[in-house]
């Protein structure tokens, strides 16, 4: 990929709808760390999507966040929007990421459907 001139960006997976002591569980059974390790080993950019999305779910709380999931793993459309907004947030945090100037500002905040 790099030989073709592309910028490699690895994202950790988003969290599942699993809560412990009022916080959504982070780490995703080691997959989040594996993504970080792969990015480091390959010299790729890394977006810690697991932490960014988890912080947003925590801010909403377990009850409201639960409405953003259709089961323990899969999100609803609103949950997918929250995750996508988390990707944009993560990209904007990257140093020297060539995609940032092309990102449109996110005008809305996700609110779960009733």
Which short descriptors sum up this protein?
mainly alpha, two-stranded parallel ribbon, 9% strand, 114 residues, single chain
Descriptive notes:
It is globular, with a radius of gyration of 15 Å. Helix 2 crosses helix 4 (77-93). The longest helix has 17 residues, at 77-93. The chain has a two-stranded parallel ribbon. A two-stranded antiparallel ribbon has the order 2-3. By secondary structure, the chain is mainly alpha-helical. A hairpin with a 2-residue loop joins strand 2 and strand 3. The protein has helices at residues 31-42, 49-60, 62-66, 77-93, and strands at 9-11, 19-20, 23-24, 45-47.
Encode the helix/strand succession as letters: EEEHEHHH
Number of strands: 4
The profile of the biggest β sheet is:
2 strands, parallel
Q: What spatial form do the alpha-carbon principal axes imply?
A: globular
CA gyration radius, whole angstroms: 15 Å
Helix content: 40-55%
Question: What structural category do the secondary elements indicate?
Answer: mainly alpha
Strand content: 5-15%
For the termini, the CA-CA separation is: 43 Å
Order of neighbouring strands in the sheet with most strands? 1-4
Low-confidence stretches: none
């Amino acid at each position: 990929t790099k030989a073709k001139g592309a910028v490699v960006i690895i994202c950790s997976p988003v969290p599942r709808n699993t809560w412990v002591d009022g916080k959504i569980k982070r780490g995703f059974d080691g997959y989040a760390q594996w993504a970080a390790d792969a990015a480091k080993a390959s010299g790729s950019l890394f977006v810690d999507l697991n932490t960014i999305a988890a912080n947003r779910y925590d801010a909403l709380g377990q009850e409201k966040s639960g409405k953003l999931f259709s089961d323990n793993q899969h999100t609803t459309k609103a949950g997918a929007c929250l995750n996508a907004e988390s990707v944009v947030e993560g990209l904007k945090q990257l140093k020297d990421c060539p995609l940032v100037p092309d990102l449109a500002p996110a005008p809305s905040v996700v609110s779960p459907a009733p």
